[in-house]
Automatic annotation (TrEMBL):
The chain crosses the membrane at residues 41-58, 70-95, 107-125, 131-154, 166-187, 193-212, 243-260, 272-291, 303-324, 330-352, 364-390, 396-418. It is found in: Cell membrane. Its main location: membrane. PROSITE patterns: MFS (PS50850). One of its GO terms (cellular component) is plasma membrane. It comes from Pseudorhodoferax soli. It comes from the Bacteria. The keyword Cell membrane applies. Gene3D superfamilies: MFS general substrate transporter like domains. This is MFS transporter. InterPro entries: MFS, MFS_dom, MFS_trans_sf, MFS_Transporters. Keywords: Cell membrane, Membrane, Transmembrane, Transmembrane helix, Transport. GO terms for molecular function: transmembrane transporter activity.
Length: 422
């Protein structure tokens, strides 16, 4: 009996082990969590950046509806707009280097989840307080994502990353503004439908983000990286300062267009259709995306010079359009300024990125975007304050004149970069 029992136990053991074995080898059955290959990972990362920026510009065409429903002032609107930028800045300062320590994938997934929650708040918004909470949470999510996604693109394909880092945000802002404006004008329940579309997109991207490859090794110091600071490598500091004037002009103009631009466009054109404001935003950001593609065949220094000079011309045209209520000149100025900002953005990234090793890229990108979003937010908030005192028309002329003066300084300062390496 003991021999038969031992033989039975042996057969049972081998049968149990056979059930536990996979029916095919791991080499032929991919795991559902197997990381994406570099090429699809690159395109999905760019798509995530497009979604973040589309979500950031989507509320702009809706502000007029919110103001009619809740009766708040232009100054309140500017503060709602500014709350996003300040939250984004705080997130960049605190979390901008986190993906250098925890890895890109974890940080990107966390940012997508926060963005999803912010869109839920927009979707259910019932007052200005809801808008503020949604914009602040959205700013934090976008700030966390900005440096991680930019760095992921650089890790996956350094040659194409500067183009994609320039194209994706511009395309995203254009899609968010134009798409929302079209829904406001032609679709029912626009203050809900646009957010339902965004929620569906974000849900898909959270699932995909779980399969992104980790392009940097985990390393110690994650808690220390949360201490707010500008992490600019020593070799990049002087170059960044030299590039700031033209960068400031482009981002300050974009901030003005995204906050008060739709209202100004209605004044200049005399057309109150929601698509008018969306078209103005698209007229600036889509040429910027095109410029990021075109400038890949030019030296980085040439892109910087062309960008600074074009910003000057664009500001002149836009100011003429505002002063004489000439829609053609106004929109032409937006087109020229947008293309020029894309040139400047492409040249700036291609000049800065080689100055930082991979483990310091997220910190450098975070510092660059801190400077950019300060230019994006603070002047726009000051313009909102000035609008209450002097009116939108006078404020737009004064704001444009100051940016024009800075653009001239940037144009002269960038001429010495022509002989620089790409």
């Amino acid at each position: 009996m003991s021999g038969a029992s031992a033989q039975w136990r042996k057969r049972y053991f081998f049968a149990f082990e056979k059930l536990r074995m996979p029916t095919s080898s791991p080499a032929t059955t991919p795991s559902p969590r197997q990381p994406l290959a570099p090429k699809p990972a690159l395109w999905w990362t760019a798509a995530m950046m497009v979604t973040f920026l589309a979500a950031s510009s989507a509320p702009s065409p809706l502000y007029a509806l919110y103001r009619e429903a809740w009766g708040f002032s232009a100054l309140t609107l500017t503060w709602v707009f500014g709350s996003y930028a300040f939250a984004l800045l705080a997130a960049l300062l605190m979390f901008g280097r986190l993906s250098d320590h925890l890895g890109r994938r974890r940080v990107i997934v966390g940012a997508l989840v926060l963005e999803f929650l912010s869109v839920v708040l927009f979707w259910q918004a019932e007052s200005v307080a809801w808008l503020l909470a949604a914009r602040i949470l959205q700013g934090v999510a976008t700030g966390i994502a900005t440096s991680a996604l930019s760095s992921m693109l650089l890790d996956l394909n350094p040659l194409r990353a500067s183009m994609m880092n320039g194209v994706a945000p511009m395309v995203g802002m254009a899609l968010g503004a134009l798409g929302t404006a079209a829904l406001v004008q032609f679709a029912p329940a626009p203050t809900r439908l646009v957010y339902e579309v965004l929620l569906a997109m974000l849900a898909v991207q959270v699932v995909v983000a779980l399969r992104l490859p980790d392009t940097v090794a985990h390393r110690a110091g994650a808690w220390g990286s949360l201490r707010p600071q500008m992490a600019v490598p020593p070799g990049a500091s002087a170059v960044l300062q030299r590039l700031l004037p033209a960068n400031t002009v482009g981002w300050a103009l974009m901030g003005f267009f995204l906050s008060l631009g739709p209202t100004l466009a209605r004044q200049v054109t005399g057309n109150a259709a929601p698509l008018t404001g969306g078209a103005l935003i698209a007229a600036m950001v889509l040429p910027g995306a095109l410029a990021s593609v075109v400038m890949q065949r030019r030296l980085a220094a040439q892109a910087l010079v062309l960008g600074a000079g074009g910003l000057t011309l664009g500001m002149v045209l836009a100011l003429a359009g505002v002063h004489w209520h000439a829609p053609a000149a106004f929109f032409a100025g937006a087109l020229v300024a947008g293309f020029s900002m894309g040139c400047s953005f492409s040249g700036t990234l291609r000049t800065l990125v080689p100055l930082a090793p991979p483990q310091q890229r997220a910190g450098l990108m975070a510092s660059f975007f801190v400077c950019s979003y300060l230019a994006f937010s603070v002047p726009a908030i000051l313009a909102g304050l000035a609008t209450g005192w002097f009116g939108l028309h006078a404020t737009a002329l004064g704001y444009g004149a100051l940016l024009l003066a800075l653009a001239v300084v940037a144009a002269f300062g960038s001429r010495g970069l022509v002989a620089a390496k790409p």
